[in-house]
What we know:
By secondary structure, the protein is α/β, with parallel strands linked by helices. It has two domains: about 150 residues, Nitrogenase molybdenum iron protein domain (Rossmann fold), CATH 3.40.50; about 130 residues, 3-Layer(aba) Sandwich (Rossmann fold). Helices cover about 35% and strands about 15% of the residues. The chain is built from eleven helices and nine strands. The strands form two sheets. A five-stranded mixed beta sheet has the order 7-6-5-8-9. The longest helix has 21 residues. It is globular.
Amino acid sequence: MPTRRALLGGIGLALAGPAWARAQVSGPAGPARRVACLDLLLTETLLTLGVTPAAVGNIPLYDRLVAEPALPDGVPDLGPLQEPNLELLQYLRPDLILAPSWAEVGQADLERIAPVAWLPTFSTRKPALDHARDLLLRAAALTGRDAEAKAWSDRADAALAEARQMLSPWTDRPVYVVRFNEDGRHAAIFGGNGMIGDVLARLGLRNAWTGRTNVWGTVSIGIEQLAGNAEARLIHFNRGAETERALHQLAASPLWAALPAVRRGRVIEMPVVYPNGGLASATRFAQQLARVLPAHGTANG
């Protein structure tokens, strides 16, 4: 089994600057081939690079929240992300495990099975897309997929630039982006430096939510807070049956009916994307915005 030092020797240099992103994994083992993953964003990142994981934690959760890129059939499920099946993981003999850095204290036993790359899944110092790009480059260096990372980074830049150009007539009004709770009284709203807020800013769209958010760029609000900006459009994610139940509750709410966006026909639905996702999720969100806003009427509506 390759040593932790040989396989992950370059990780410590990550804090030294962008030169690390160009470094190759050193040591006799070479790039990791069998990579297990214990985080949704890191799984998305691996799949973006074209790497089929040797195993993944909580596959149903990935399929429900992230979905794209799709996991190939037959990938073993390690169970809960925070309590993976260590016996199965040991049986599968991965040569690298990707796990979120925040879980290192509670999951130190993983290092008895294989080298672990403890990677930060969010940043408090930089916008979400810059952090997602860093993660892609780190995962690429560990798996020998530098060319794929460069291609995907360029693809994301091109998609964002195209979406920004398409949306230039729709920058007149700010937008709220939310996910409704089933109770019909609350919503998760997105802003700050999280992926959703960062994409909006890069597309030239003003985020109507200027309040505080957590490190992932989201916070729970009461529906009445969506009246804060009377000129805003309201974009909400469709999460299937959950959203149907929420909309059923909202339809009976006088508070909902009184919201400016509702009264003026500025409520827009779009397919759900993973709001804590990487470059693939960010690109999909930008492309969806470029489709749904122009399809919703005139730019000044």
